[in-house]
């Protein structure tokens, strides 16, 4: 697993997660997850009393095909403290995403997200009724536009995204709802985004966690080579 440690102390570590790596096992019990890597590299963690051993060390998630910065706790006490910081919005995450369409200079998307059980994916929930299936979760995403591109007669935008809540697939679902699906996204694609993704030769969402900030700490991560290659094509 090509995982690079950006920072480490006695309580936590910050990693640069590559695309294609699951953070923790799902119901399918997949091997070679970030949890497997963590427990192998830090064998003493196997003896600790984690709230959920299958998610040992995991403070927050990144989707399998999202790359970039992720925070892991090295002990259960730190895990609880850092998760509480996330809950209280004391940890700031920033992403770069390449999307289809011309985005506003800046915008905020505020709409709840619920799991679409029929399709095993997430969706926005514009209204909630007594018969609404699944747990509806408030979700807020802010973004600003960094650069506009034109590719094969289609407009593209590079945006910096700051999620204010941490719902599953939040950035991908919110931006698609706003009319700006992520380039390369295989799950939340549209006809146009699928066509552009094929023309650019990318088969994973262009989404990278570039910044992670809390307390006195601030971490940065460069785009991965595959994403840099996409931007070089667009120049």
CATH homologous superfamily annotation of the largest domain: Pseudouridine synthase
CATH architecture of the largest domain: 2-Layer Sandwich
Percentage of residues assigned to helices: 10-25%
> How many strands?
11
Low-pLDDT parts are: 127-132
Q: Quickly name the level 1 CATH class of the largest domain.
A: Alpha Beta
Number of domains: 2
**Oligomeric description of these chains:** single chain
- Give the DSSP E fraction (strand runs of 2 or more residues): 25-35%
Outline of the structure:
By secondary structure, the chain is an alpha+beta fold. It is about 20% helix and about 30% strand.
List keywords for this structure.
single chain, 235 residues, alpha+beta, Pseudouridine synthase, 2 domains, 9-stranded mixed β-sheet, two-stranded antiparallel sheet, 5 helices, 20% helix, 32% strand, globular
Describe this structure in words.
This protein is α+β, with helices and mostly antiparallel strands and 235 residues long. It has two domains: 1-90, Pseudouridine synthase, CATH 3.30.2350; 92-235, Pseudouridine synthase (2-Layer Sandwich). It is 20% helix and 32% strand. The strands form two sheets. Strands 1, 2, 3, 4, 5, 8, 9, 10 and 11 form a nine-stranded mixed beta sheet that branches. The radius of gyration is 18 Å and the shape is globular.
Task: Spell out the blueprint of helices and strands.
Blueprint: E1 4-8, E2 12-17, H1 34-41, E3 67-73, H2 76-87, E4 92-100, E5 106-110, E6 112-116, E7 121-125, E8 140-151, E9 154-163, H3 170-177, H4 191-200, E10 207-214, E11 217-220, H5 225-234
Parallel strand pairs: 3-10
Antiparallel strand pairs: 1-2, 2-3, 4-9, 4-10, 5-8, 6-7, 8-9, 10-11
């Amino acid at each position: 697993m090509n995982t690079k440690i950006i920072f480490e102390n006695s309580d936590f570590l910050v990693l640069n997660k590559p695309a294609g790596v699951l953070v923790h096992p799902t119901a399918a019990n997949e091997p070679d997850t970030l949890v497997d890597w963590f427990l192998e590299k830090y064998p003493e963690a196997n003896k600790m009393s984690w709230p959920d051993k299958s998610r040992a060390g995991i403070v927050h998630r990144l989707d399998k095909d999202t790359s970039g910065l992720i925070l892991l706790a090295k002990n259960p006490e730190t895990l609880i403290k850092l998760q509480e910081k996330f809950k209280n919005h004391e940890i700031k995450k920033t992403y770069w995403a390449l999307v289809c369409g011309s985005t506003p200079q800046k915008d905020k998307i505020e709409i709840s997200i619920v799991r679409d059980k029929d399709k095993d994916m997430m969706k926005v929930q514009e209204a909630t009724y007594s018969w609404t299936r699944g747990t509806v979760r408030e979700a807020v995403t802010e973004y600003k536009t960094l650069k506009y591109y034109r590719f094969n007669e289609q407009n593209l935008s590079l945006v910096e995204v700051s999620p204010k809540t941490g719902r599953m697939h939040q950035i991908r679902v919110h931006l698609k709802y706003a009319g700006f699906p992520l380039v390369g996204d295989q799950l939340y694609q549209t006809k146009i985004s699928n066509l552009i993704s094929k023309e650019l030769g990318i088969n994973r969402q262009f989404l990278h966690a570039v910044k992670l900030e809390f307390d006195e700490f601030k971490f940065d991560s460069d785009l991965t080579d595959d994403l840099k290659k996409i931007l070089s094509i667009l120049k």
